[in-house]
Design a protein that fits this description.
four-stranded mixed beta sheet; mainly alpha; 11 helices
Length: 298
């Protein structure tokens, strides 16, 4: 059946964002070359970090959340739902994990469909009915189908590199620049350029992440044919999240990008730094999808 995104406007925004990240990468590396900066070691370090993140992101995410892989005997209904969604999406069945926390959430991780894991919290299983949980799992299966972990990891390369160059330029300025024939302002110039590149690429990556959340919502609607169930699940999760103590949310803040709804989300200008769109906007999109399904357009 598949979970392909049918919203061409959304597709174009995702491709445009990725193209801009590519252009910024080329421009940044060219500027560094023109300034005579040798970036080979920085590229190696940044590439090494991304390599580790790419190949071990699933293990790191499970370790960070305290998720435990469960077999079919421990969670038969959960396994059955994941298996059926995987069959509909034409994907290998991912591993299934449970996180023992009252924070209601779910996430998927893994660099490819064949090396992926879907995790749910005990909190989300308590508040959602079967169809709502299936809709949430459909969202996570869509992330796997779209290889979102790999896409965001690769897109993060320039931000990681710019961060290393920024730090390198700062320390170079602090400890002095050894080449007296060069401009003394060179470290400051490199720091300013790399800081700007880091900020722009960071904002582009966050925008790309938000677009892919919309795509995963659409994928769930197409996969389950129940967009209204994802709407009710999002409302329940966001509503329950308000009652979770701030200290518990803080403990998982670093995993916001993985969750179907962030434990802590920004408002107004801070939404530019968010990995997820506002729940209200997601619901609007899902309501549009539901209407198209009723008219037989999807």
């Amino acid at each position: 059946m598949g979970v392909a995104v049918k919203d061409w406007g959304l597709k174009l925004r995702m491709w445009f964002t990725m193209f801009m990240i590519f252009l910024i990468t080329i421009a940044f590396l060219t500027l560094l070359w023109l300034y005579g900066v040798s970036t080979s070691m920085l590229v190696i370090i940044a590439g090494g970090m991304l390599f580790v993140q790419y190949y071990f992101s699933d293990k790191l995410a499970l370790l960070a959340t305290g998720a435990r892989i469960v077999d079919e005997s421990e969670a038969p209904e959960l396994h059955a739902m994941v298996a059926e969604l995987a069959r509909k999406a034409g994907l290998p069945k991912p591993r299934v994990a449970i996180v023992d926390t009252r924070i209601p959430n779910a996430f998927a991780t893994g660099r490819s469909p064949s090396a992926s894991t879907v995790a749910v919290t005990t909190g989300i299983m308590r508040i959602l009915d079967r169809d709502e949980l299936e809709a949430v799992l459909g969202h996570e299966m869509s992330h796997i189908a779209h290889r979102d972990v790999a896409v965001i990891t690769i897109a993060s390369f320039i931000a990681t590199l710019a961060w290393f160059v920024m730090r390198w330029a700062m320390f170079m300025g602090m400890w002095g620049y050894s080449d007296r024939d060069r401009n003394d302002l060179l470290p400051l110039a490199i720091f300013a350029i790399s800081s700007l590149v880091w900020l722009i690429s960071f904002l582009l990556i966050r925008a790309l992440s938000r677009y892919r959340e919309y795509a995963a919502d659409m994928g769930s609607a197409i996969l389950t044919r129940k967009p209204e169930k994802l709407i009710s699940a999002l409302l329940k999760i966001s509503g329950t999240m308000e009652y979770v103590p701030p200290e518990e949310k803080k403990q998982v803040e670093g995993l916001n990008a993985f969750f179907i709804i962030p434990a802590i989300s920004g408002e107004t200008i801070m939404s530019l730094f968010s990995t997820h769109p506002p729940v209200e906007k997601r619901i609007e999109k899902l309501e549009e999808i539901a209407e198209k399904m009723r008219r037989g357009e999807l």
